[in-house]
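Weekly sync, protein design subgroup
Attendees: M.S., D.O., the rotation student, P.L. (late)

Item 1: inverse folding check
M.S. brought a backbone from last month's batch and wanted to see whether the design step gives back something sensible before we order anything. D.O. pointed out we never logged the input encoding, so this time it goes straight into the notes. Structure tokens as presented (286 positions):
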């Protein structure tokens, strides 16, 4: 397991799989170990995946200062990884909560980003957030599912209004997957052991996204090509919100994966990996 050192001295780990040009992958959660990404639906057949364990997760070390779990303070961890790998520019993929980390990295280090792939990603750094109404829109799409019922719908609502119990989180898990099959259930069950709860509480704390206007201005001049990939059934972001995110970048395209939710590489692996690989290959040919 390869490691490197963050600017504050924290030892960080990453995992490598596949062949080809490196693709740096940032896990969401927030603050979930990168193992849940797997090989991103077979994307490792097209690219050498470099999966970063964010500080305090997976095989990475725990920082001396817990305040460094805050999203904006982890930007230089990504830059340290780029330098460690000896890359002039990087292809960067971010899932879910790490969308904010990738966006802040692109804003701070625009010349170091060759492509940016945002997979069902947050964009609070740009002033875009997901509302309870967005969650309800997505929930209504699942009304015909065998697992759907009033109790599940109510639990889902409590998750997003901040009043959820552990049982509510368990009941709401099916909404995150296009198919609530054995593979999805095993993937969901792995979350508890992979998330650093203390770090997750700090990740989006006060000050993390204090100047969205400045970040929007920074990415408005970004030369990198951007793919914003949303799931048709996902609530964060809904496809129409993903379109707003894409519109904030000068060279962005939107892809909406049919029948997919928050983990699209599990819902349709070939579709997901094919979409991302085509986007990256287009860049390779330029």
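Designed sequence read out in the meeting:
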């Amino acid at each position: 397991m390869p490691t490197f050192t963050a600017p504050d001295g924290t030892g960080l780990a990453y995992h490598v799989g596949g062949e080809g040009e490196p693709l740096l992958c940032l896990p969401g959660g927030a603050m979930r170990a990168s193992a849940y990404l797997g090989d991103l639906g077979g994307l490792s057949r097209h690219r050498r995946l470099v999966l970063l364990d964010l500080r305090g997760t997976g095989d990475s070390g725990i920082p001396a200062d817990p305040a460094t779990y805050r999203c904006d303070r982890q930007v230089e961890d990504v830059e340290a990884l780029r330098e460690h790998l000896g890359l002039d520019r990087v292809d960067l993929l971010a899932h879910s909560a790490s969308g904010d980390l990738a966006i802040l990295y692109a804003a701070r280090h625009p010349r170091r980003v060759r492509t940016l792939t945002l997979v069902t990603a947050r964009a609070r750094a740009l002033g875009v957030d997901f509302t309870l109404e967005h969650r309800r829109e997505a929930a209504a799409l699942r009304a015909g599912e065998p697992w759907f019922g009033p109790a599940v719908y109510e639990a889902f609502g409590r998750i997003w209004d901040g009043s959820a119990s552990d049982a509510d989180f368990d009941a709401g898990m099916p909404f995150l997957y296009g198919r609530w099959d054995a593979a999805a259930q095993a993937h969901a069950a792995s979350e508890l052991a992979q998330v650093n709860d203390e770090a997750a509480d700090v990740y989006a704390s006060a000050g993390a996204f204090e100047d969205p206007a400045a970040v929007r201005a920074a990415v408005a001049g970004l030369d990198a090509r951007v793919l914003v990939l949303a799931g048709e059934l996902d609530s964060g972001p809904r496809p129409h919100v993903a379109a707003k995110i894409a519109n904030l970048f000068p060279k962005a395209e939107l892809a909406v994966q049919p029948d997919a939710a928050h983990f699209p590489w599990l819902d349709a692996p070939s579709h997901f990996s094919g979409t991302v690989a085509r986007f990256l290959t287009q860049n390779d040919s330029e």
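Discussion: The chain has a mean pLDDT of 95. The CA atoms of residues 80 and 187 lie 30 Å apart.
Action: P.L. to compare against the previous round before Friday.
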